[in-house]
What does this fold into?
Amino acid sequence: MVVATLATALVLGVIGAAPTRAADPPDLERFMTAVARVESGGNHKAVNRTSGAYGRYQILPENWRAWAQRYLGNANAKPTPANQEKVAKAKMRSLYRWLGSWRRVSYWWLTGSSRTKAWSRPATSYVARVMAYFGGPNTGDPADGGAATAASQRYSERSSTIDYSGSWRPARHGGYAGGAVRYAISAGATATITFTGSRIAWYGPVGPTRGKARISIDGVAVKTVNLKRSSFESTTILYSASWKTLGRHTLAIEVIGTPGHRLVAIDELVVTK
It folds into this structure.
C-alpha cells in the first residue's frame, strides 16, 4: 500500500495537475451576440459576395482556415454553426486578453488593426454600433475619448428619465440599439436628461435625411451637431461631454429643423459615473 501510494505521488508529481483554462473575459457571449448582430443580423449562413466572408461573424476564408487550425485542430473544418461559435469565441477571448477592452476588439474585428488613435469614420461608426448592442461595461477607448469603466448607465429612447417636449415619434430598424429610436422634425422639439456622472454620450443615426441639433449643457448652448451624412448609419456617437469629477448635469438636445433634412433621432444616452 505504501509503495503504491508513493508511486502514485511520483506519477502526479511528474505529470502535474490537469491544466485549467483562465476564466473568460467579462461578458464574452454578450459581446459575441453584439458583433453577430452588426455583422450578419445573427445569421450563420450569411455571405458577403464581395469579400467571401461567411457566417454569423463574417469570418474571411483565409482567416477561417488559420483559426480553425488553431482552435479546432483542423484547417479544413467546415464552418458549421457550432464550429463558428467555437472559433469566434476562442478568437475573441484571445483578442480581449491582448487588447484589453471590447471596444478595441470590435475595431480589430473590422480592421485587423490594434491601433488606438485616428480611427476612420466608418470604423468608429462600426464600433459604436457593436458597443450600442453590447450595452455593457468596459466600453471606453482612447479613440473616442472614453475611459473604461464598470459604472455606466444606458437610457434608451423610451426611458422616463428623458423629458421630451414637442412632437417625438418612434421608428424601428434592426440596427438600432433595442430596435427603435425616437425622432422629431419640428424646430424646437427638445429631449432633456438630468443625470449624475462624469461623462455622457448621445447615440443615434446619421444619414442624408438627418438634420441639425443644438446641444446645451446645464442651460448653456455649447454646440450645434450636424447629423447629415452621405449614407445612413444606424448607430454612432453623435455627441459626448465629460468632466473631471462626478457631478449633476443637464443635457438638452434641441431640433433646429434644417430645411430639407430635419430629422433628429435619439437611440440611447449613456452616462458614465
